[in-house]
TrEMBL record:
Function according to Swiss-Prot or TrEMBL: Hydrolyzes ADP-ribose, IDP-ribose, CDP-glycerol, CDP-choline and CDP-ethanolamine, but not other non-reducing ADP-sugars or CDP-glucose. May be involved in immune cell signaling as suggested by the second-messenger role of ADP-ribose, which activates TRPM2 as a mediator of oxidative/nitrosative stress.
Enzyme class: hydrolase
Gene transcribed to yield this protein: ADPRM
Recorded family membership: Belongs to the ADPRibase-Mn family.
Cofactor(s) recorded in Swiss-Prot or TrEMBL: Mg(2+)
Assembly: Monomer.
Catalytic reaction equation(s): ADP-D-ribose + H2O = D-ribose 5-phosphate + AMP + 2 H(+); CDP-glycerol + H2O = sn-glycerol 3-phosphate + CMP + 2 H(+); CDP-choline + H2O = phosphocholine + CMP + 2 H(+)
Name this protein carries in UniProt: Manganese-dependent ADP-ribose/CDP-alcohol diphosphatase
Upper taxonomic lineage: Eukaryota, Metazoa, Chordata, Craniata, Vertebrata
Location of the Calcineurin-like phosphoesterase domain: 20-280
Length: 342
């Protein structure tokens, strides 16, 4: 079965075209260890920074050096806001990232919005939109400023698209804005609970306050970029804090309108892989259209004697995730008609 991890050592005789790093849910805070909402998973708030340092040391020394690292969101924990430590903790984590030789692309998750407003994030080091690439003569592939999303080309014929899964959300939005009212209404229509973070009794349990979704505007933009990538015969990797494929994720962790995002992706040939964080437990599934959905294990729930990050080695016919610690190795073949023939 495709959804089983591939145990053992990955071996590949030929050199990859390029490689990139992945890490998720660092959720650093200067706090004693704690537990998740259900009390079932230990959270290592301080040690998460040491896990990050270990990952960076590894990436800096890797023989197939990553061309970039994808940080899948929730870089510091929401508790920082309660202790008025948001800026200090972010500064500490970002100074750690500065020791990484490769550039980092930062995704925004719910914990970013527990700590900061959208305006603050836009003007912070967590905004890596300056790393975007432009497609000349195709203005329709330029993202709007209304959401935090962009695309870039780390290697010819491979395009990465970073999505904003909190474009529709009650988090990080000015509460006096019409958009906040629209999002709150959307959430309440699907979630009658007094506590909007509770999925209790919901037929669509993803409609909770700690999730969000993609605006039609952003999905239209995604559609334009994927149309270009199809025409240009590119392979596309999509990055989002929230997962969109139910088989790879706990349903309570999915983006509100994950079906809309899947419909756009499935109407194109070019997408090969979708990376997300948020779930902490990790998950994987290949969908019926051959897109590999990888939910990365979260650093925050990783014991000090383990690790949680990976390096993805990209080949003409597949991507090989070399996982560390809790992250399993995976071989992700492209659908036959999607493989490059050099
Ligand atoms: Zn999250």
């Amino acid at each position: 079965m495709d959804d089983k991890p591939n145990p053992g050592t990955l071996s590949e005789s030929s050199e990859p075209l390029f490689s990139f790093g992945v890490i998720a849910d660092i959720q650093y805070a200067d706090l004693e260890d704690g537990y998740n909402f259900h009390g079932s998973r230990r959270r290592y708030y301080r040690h998460s920074l040491l896990h990050l340092r270990g990952a960076i040391e590894h990436w800096n020394e890797e023989s197939s050096a990553p061309c970039c690292v994808l940080q899948l969101g929730d870089i510091i924990d929401g508790y920082n806001a309660q202790y008025k430590a948001s800026e200090k903790s972010l500064e500490l984590v970002m100074s750690t990232f500065q020791t990484l030789k490769a550039p980092v692309h930062h995704t925004w998750g719910n914990h970013e919005f527990y700590n900061f407003s959208r305006d603050y994030l836009t003007n912070s080091k967590l905004n890596t939109k300056f790393l975007e690439d432009h497609i000349v003569h195709h203005p329709e592939t330029m993202p709007s400023e209304d959401y935090y999303a962009y695309h870039f080309v780390p290697f010819p014929k491979f395009r990465f698209i970073l999505l904003d899964a909190y474009d529709l959300s009650v988090l990080g939005v000015d509460q006096s804005s019409p958009k906040y009212q629209q999002c709150l209404q959307m959430l309440r229509e699907h979630n009658p609970n007094t506590e909007l973070n509770s999925p209790q009794g919901l037929s669509e349990p993803q409609f909770v306050q700690f999730n969000g979704g993609f605006s039609q505007e952003q999905l239209n933009w995604l559609n334009e970029v994927l149309t270009f990538s199809d025409t240009n015969q590119e392979k596309v990797v999509i990055v989002s804090h929230l997962p969109i494929y139910p088989e790879a994720s706990d349903s309570v962790c999915l983006a509100w309108n994950y079906r809309d995002a899947l419909a756009v992706i499935w109407s194109h040939q070019c997408v090969v892989c979708f990376f997300a964080g948020h779930t902490h437990d990790g998950g994987y599934s290949k969908d019926p259209f051959g897109v590999h959905h990888v939910n990365l294990e979260g650093v925050i729930e990783t014991a000090p004697d383990s690790q949680a990050f990976g390096t993805v080695h990209v080949y003409p016919d597949k991507m090989m995730l070399k996982g560390r610690g809790r992250v399993p190795d995976r071989i992700m073949n492209y659908e036959k008609e999607r493989a490059f023939h050099f």
